Amino acid sequence: MTTVRPPLDPSEEKRSAKQREARLLQIRRDAEAGARGAWAEPPMETALERTESQTGYYGLPVLKAPPWTWEIPIYFFVGGAAGAAAVIGSVAKWTDGDSELIRDARWIAAVGGMISPALLVSDLGYPRRFLNMLRVFKVQSPMSVGSWTLVVFSSSAAAAAFLSTVERHPGGLLRVFMNAADMIAALSGTLLATYTGVLIGATAVPVWHENISILPIHFAMSGLASATSILELRGHETPALNALGIAACAGETLIGAKIELDQRRVSEPLKKGTSGWLTRIGGVLSGPLPLALRLLAGNSKSERSVKLRKAAAMSSIAGSLITRAAWIAAGRVSAKDPRLELNRGRGIEIPDAETDHEKRIDN
Amino acid sequence: MSTTTAFLTDSTLCIGCKACEVACKEWNGISQDGFDWSGLSYDNTTGLGHSTWRHVKFIENATMPGLGGNAPETAAWAFSSDVCKHCGDAGCLEACPTGAIVRTEFGGVFIQPDVCNGCGYCVVTCPFGVVERNPDDGRAFKCTFCYDRQVAGLKPACATACPTESIKFGQLDELRLEAQERLAELQGRGMKDVAIYDPESVSGIHALFITRGDPERYNLPPQPEVPTVYLKKGWTSAAIGAGLLVAGVFAAFLRAQE
Question: Which residue in the set B96, B218, B245 is minimally distant from A220, CB to CB?
């Protein structure tokens, strides 16, 4: 059995002079011992013959991993919840819902609309130029569409929340303004809750773009579940919200099952390793667990039911947050794996990670 | 004046001297990126990035990696200087939300450093993993195609420094022809595995490569994609998601009203 050096991770921290010498010694020892790396292709009969394809270039990644920091998954969560809250507030108003609920929903949307830009600006590499996001509008860039959506959403959600607070029953022009702001916030809210799926889906990262058909729906469900849960935790115990919670959790359960049953090699980061476990934990917390709790609780007003629903709400919020972090983590893993990129369009079955390496070493 | 310029990097002529890497750093004033043994042949740079705009790859067909190319049992050793491909249809350019990434009058893809705000979206939309955010500076950087030199009528620094003319610089159409001629010549000499790397899936690239064997040996994806091809699917799904969201909320509140 031969030893294989792990492929070099470019993100590895720079070594000290002493560590570098040690590394050099190790490399030399490996070479002298005849340890063949996974990349070592035995030469063909002559150097001029057509050489066989190998798995890549020392297993180094083809793509760059997303440089985004912790702000981005949190923004996905906050933006999703705020967007869905604006929709809930608006629909509640049109269906003559409880005025407290409408106001709370508007405030969740407004506060989310204020936190989101702060998170995004803080993630920028050059934050003082954040206004450059509004320099152009590019329909082919989801990041540009998203920036403009966020601006429209934040201002309209803030206006709606502010107006509904200063004047409980506004009339005349103020009422027209408030309704317009409310409508705009709800419409841009639907976009805000879903565009983030397109944002990461329309990239070169395999696990993201191969799942682009479910990502926006997934994120919309996740946002709806968290908005509903935040409202419930604020004390709004209504059958409508409970029904919404059940629907969103059912949707998340379906998507979770779809991911779990996905046998494609490209979706491996969603099932294996740290990112896989994050995905799984996020999936259980936002899908089957709160769904079961809500079904157990029913619509009863008993103390036990209220507690169960509260637990479901907390589980949904945590699940949504973890799910967003999991997708970013999976993207990082996926970008570092060169095999998918190097095999695309070749009609070659993507080799299984371990068997392929082992074959090369043992032969 | 509107001309499309290009690189033709010929792996069969490269001697792995890394003069292009050095010339690029010198001219563009890029910071050093540390010194570390990778253990991967003589390639201690390991990839393109914010501080590496030319990168020489060392493709070993050795039985013992680490022994080096002059070991007797080493049958073939290929070198190739990698660079930003300046795609005909560039993922980074399409994705840039600030308009910092533009196509120059020479057909190259250029990041304007005075506009970029470091959002990092070009990093994940480049199908070749070329663009990277500089952690110290915050902005994204990649090969500029020596835009400043080209404006002044000069060849890019790497092509100027290359001692074997492995890196050729010229008009795109002419270099495409030259690549074909070179391919025929090499094949005539018995080098059956030479190939031109100019993927159609990104509408051709402005940095052509002549390689030995399949492109994946050089970490070049055989079929790179401009991520905008996924937009249609994505927005369709977003519309479905938004529809479900609104319909669900309406249904829940209308039912509760009854």
Answer: B245
